[in-house]
Amino acid sequence: MDERKLSQYIDHLNAGKKPGEHNKKLQEEDEILLAAVRKARLLREVEYPDDLFKQRLVNSLTKRKPQGNQLRKFALICTSAAAAVLLFVTAYYFLPNRDAGIVYAMENALKEIQAYHGILEVSETNGLGETVTQSKREVWADQKGNYYIMDLEGTSKGTITANNGEQKWQLQPEKKTAYLLPAFPDASVFTFELGNEINSVTKAQTVKKAGFEIINGRNTTKLQITPEGGDPYFLWVDDETDLPLQRVSAMQNGIQIKAEYTSMEFIDEIPRNLLVYDAPDGYEEVDTNLEQEVASLEEAERMAGFTPRLPDRAAEGYTLNRIAVEKDRAAVKLYYSTGDSAYAVLLTQSETSEDLAPSSAAILGSVNHNKAEIITVEPVRSIRWQEDGMEYSILGTVPLEKLTIFAESLSKGKVEIPASTETVREPKIKVKVDQPAEENEQKSVDAGHSPWKLDPVFVTQVFASLLLSPEGIVGDYPIAYEDIEIILNNGVDAIAEIKDEKSVVKYVYLKRLVRQDDTGIWTVVGYDPAQE
């Protein structure tokens, strides 16, 4: 029995339905395997298997003693059954709020496809039940990150957006304009892209089955998914392909968003003609990409005015395949690729013109003992630092560990990233926190409201300004944004220093209380007075 059928069998048992296999004549090894699954499902108090687990399992499954040549075959069957039960029990014990079978099936299904083509519709429904279509798109996408999207309905009807890994462009027929954009990094991934959708499910706090439904003529499993610190939403997964077909958000501020593939097919590749840039006659071309490709490091050196550095070694599997110079600031850009994508890592270097000013969203670490800005916001992560009169930036759509290899090879020193579990000094004065109110604030931000709560500098500015004007703020904030510096940020805890003599506080302590990732809001938990 293959993995997908076994997963569906377990799904039906969990849903209280009789699997179709119970009405069929199965092979002996399949009968033994399914019997083992049924026995494992009856377990409530889970114990770690002891050394006699396999033998007890064998004895419980059959009273017939195998003889002769059947012995080796029977041992293999029982070993497979024991492994299946152990996997089932482990998932049950360690992932009590996650339907591990279907999540695992989705991840595997995505790995099996090369590209897909479908019609994607996005609509919104208000509290009165009135539904309006936001957009309808024809989507072509592949595993390498290439895509071609045509808007079929809505305010952007006729607009084409495409990225072939080498070049990104957007054709807007209403303006008769062709915009040329940087192909990498490309953070503007379209709504309900399958890879991102499955990635979000794997990070969810809970994943539970909520029934079985037919969507656009296809049998699907309905999942209720609760992200950490967020409202539950529903996802419908195609039973045949194990891939998402429809998503419906929670009702937030009287609006519920539905995204669905009304049709879907899986293909070997995107038609090549779609990934060739060709502006129609009469279109004005606007080039927003300010870099010029060069043939060698020597050419880059002549244009930039300095000798670019190469890492001693790249991460395994990555090769340098493109060199460019950003003309407006004389920066050399080295593009590294893997066999799976046109570009995966971009290394940029330029002469420093001012001190490093890390983004307020960054974790503060170090590279070779130099202060470093570390961004972990998906899908693009980055490490940026200054060293010996140069500024270096390494970014990519790869795990941070890969970027670390590049940074350490380039700087000849260690990359230090503070752990979110590290102890942070205590504030002199603690601020009482209303946890339910913060959880509601998180949901509001998830719905697109009060995005400033994601910025620890802005949160500090509001807090310190209200201490000066407790009756409310009219006009400009008394504490300027530019006078606040984040001196510690490990991704969960942060400390902001206020460099304004009129402020009544010197340091403000913040924490991500509801959700500990880049989508989590910051909350003030304490402060140190400016004067003792």
Structure, explained:
This protein has ten helices and 26 strands. It has helices spanning 3-14, 28-41, 53-61, 70-94, 100-112, 194-202, 297-304, 400-411, 435-446, 456-468; strands at 115-126, 131-142, 147-153, 160-163, 168-172, 177-181, 206-215, 218-226, 233-238, 244-248, 255-267, 284-287, 291-294, 319-326, 331-338, 341-351, 363-367, 370-375, 381-387, 390-396, 415-416, 429-430, 484-489, 493-498, 505-511, 523-529. Helix 1 (3-14) packs parallel to helix 2 (28-41), helix 2 packs parallel to helix 4 (70-94) and helix 5 (100-112) packs antiparallel against helix 6. The longest helix is centred in the N-terminal third of the chain and has 25 residues, at 70-94. 24% of the residues lie in helices and 33% in strands. A hairpin with a 4-residue loop joins strand 2 (131-142) and strand 3. With 532 residues, the protein is an alpha+beta fold. Residues 41-79 and 84-96 have low confidence and may be disordered.
Q: Major beta sheet, specifics?
A: 12 strands, mixed
Q: How is the quaternary structure best described? A: single chain
In spatial order, strands of the major sheet run 7-8-9-10-11-1-2-3-4-5-6-12
Rounded radius of gyration (Å): 28 Å
Average per-residue pLDDT, rounded, comes to 84
Count of alpha/pi helices: 10
Counted beta strands:
26
Helical residues, percent: 10-25%
Strand portion: 25-35%
Q: Enumerate the spans where pLDDT stays under 50 for 5 or more consecutive residues.
A: 41-79, 84-96
The helix-and-strand class reads alpha+beta
Shape: globular
